[in-house]
Write a structure and sequence with these properties.
- The structure is a homodimer of 293-residue chains.
- The first copy, chain A, is built from ten helices and ten strands.
- Chain A has helices at residues 19-31, 44-51, 62-71, 75-83, 94-98, 103-106, 111-120, 157-172, 226-238, 269-292; strands at residues 2-8, 39-43, 54-56, 85-92, 124-129, 134-136, 149-151, 177-185, 192-200, 247-251.
- In chain A, helix 1 crosses helix 8 (157-172) and helix 3 (62-71) crosses helix 4.
- Chain A is globular and about 60 Å long.
């Protein structure tokens, strides 16, 4: 059993660039071409750049001004977040939380810089994006673009993945799977990993909940989020080299073809809310029960 | 830029088996041997099996009986969870939450089986394990072991990783990185991915928070959890083939040597609690502020 993971070094992507064509060309030059059943992982940033999902020099609204007064976060960033959100769900006061933690010392190359940045951006906003996901700062990103430019993730990443897959089929006559990836913070660890926000041509999860194990017992589990694992694997090449590898090709994985997208595995907001409330209640009840029974 | 990921097919691991020796042998046979700077990902389950981290036919305590009355979860499983916990932090009433959701239909191969299993195990317990991580059911696992046997994760996975790394160094004279992986549920998606619970010989995260981007702006982010991304990449080979691949070798990744472990990147419980409370307060305040100001 063997997988190969190739990073494609592309040039800077500009608006109206044809991503599928560029991928086919660079794959030809750098890895001898794409093959049937390859999985192509593409960072959402270049999809957004090519498709023009960019807010350019935006003027803040009243709501952004309000939110900026409350959070102290940069005004134009807030306007971009608002424009890319259906709902602002929570505000995480990062600076306050990390007081007395080892974060500034341990996770940065320059402690002073980190503290200054935490002063400028003292909180993280959790928002529901236009495509119904939860995302930090609504997925809006301002790194590696000019000042006052804000990139936002594709409004329908499954559709972008499907479009790119179709186009590659047209150009090369082969069927590949396409995953659009993005970086998201982790709840239990200091840091972030890449996840899939869009997919086409691959079953996003293994549907093995309650399958029988070798001893004939039903397995409580067995739903691997394959597309997230693929996005994470790709990030190993995308993330550590300082830019220049926005596309990764994974070869050799035996996956199931599917027309489902990432949309189908996202827990809907109502279940997250219901889950949080019921979990809090159940936990409080249990504490009371443990004391008195 | 190219990574290779090899799955090693091992036989059934038994108590007192020498994992490092077995890995060296099977790597020799199946992939022509290990090399300097290879990353070896090992599922925690075989480490636990070899080291005897197994509760065998345990007798439930009064506390387990109490908890079982409250949660309806199997008695012996609860005893195993209690034995492997420092604290029970939350109870997630999964069955209630997933009522009216698409879960039983969409994520299983057999709807009836799934519903029956959700009736038997209607909730998930979030506990702090002995090594200070948050884990579903305290990391206790009963699949693919005989009835009434419960496997628990190594009490100090960083140390197990380091022990295996040292042993491979002794046998082959080369330095590899070792990661112990486990499966954990995801909060935003229906399913689970693999994470690193122990590591040795590799910097667990890239420490680039507040580094400058190409436009000279400080990057809010840049802390990739490399060890989790590696565990996820390995899971692509471990998870989908029906067992038999508990060890994966990753070759070609340019990583930094380090003696830090996973312990160093886990957010301490006090910050998680502080984070949750401050986030709730900040969010409520913001809602009030938005209405009145």
């Amino acid at each position: 059993m063997e997988l190969k993971i190739y990073g494609l070094k592309l040039g800077e992507i500009k608006e109206n660039d044809n991503i599928p064509e560029i991928i086919c060309q660079y794959a030809e030059k750098q890895i001898g071409g794409l093959r049937e059943k390859d999985i192509i992982v593409i960072t959402s940033k270049i999809v957004s750049k090519a498709r023009g999902y960019i807010f350019k020099e935006i003027i803040p609204s009243k709501r952004a001004i309000k939110l900026s007064k409350f959070t102290g976060k940069p005004l134009k960033l807030l306007e971009a977040i608002i424009r890319n959100s259906k709902n602002i769900l929570a505000i995480i006061p990062l600076k306050k939380i990390l007081e007395d933690s080892k974060f500034p010392e341990e996770f940065t190359q320059d402690r002073e810089s980190a503290i200054e940045l935490l002063n400028e951006e003292s909180c993280i906003i959790i928002a529901e994006t236009k495509d119904g996901r939860l995302a930090t700062d609504a997925g809006v990103d301002m790194s590696n673009v000019p000042n006052d430019f804000f990139i936002y993730p594709p409004p329908d990443p499954d559709k972008e993945a499907s479009r790119i897959r179709e186009e590659i089929k047209r150009i090369l006559g082969i069927d590949v799977a396409v995953i659009i990836s993005d970086t998201e913070v982790n709840m239990y660890r200091y840091g972030s990993t890449d996840i899939a926000i869009g997919a086409s041509g691959i079953e996003p999860v293994s549907r093995c909940f309650a399958s029988l194990d070798r001893y004939g017992k039903r397995k409580f589990g067995g739903v691997d989020i394959i597309v997230d694992e693929i996005a994470s694997a790709a990030a190993l090449l995308m993330g550590q080299t300082s830019e220049g590898i926005p596309v990764v090709v994974i070869r050799g994985l035996d996956y199931k073809l599917s027309d489902k997208g990432v949309k189908d595995i996202v827990i809907e907001r109502k279940f997250i809310r219901k889950g949080l409330i019921l979990t809090m209640l159940e936990t409080i009840l249990y504490r009371i029960y443990s004391v008195f029974v």
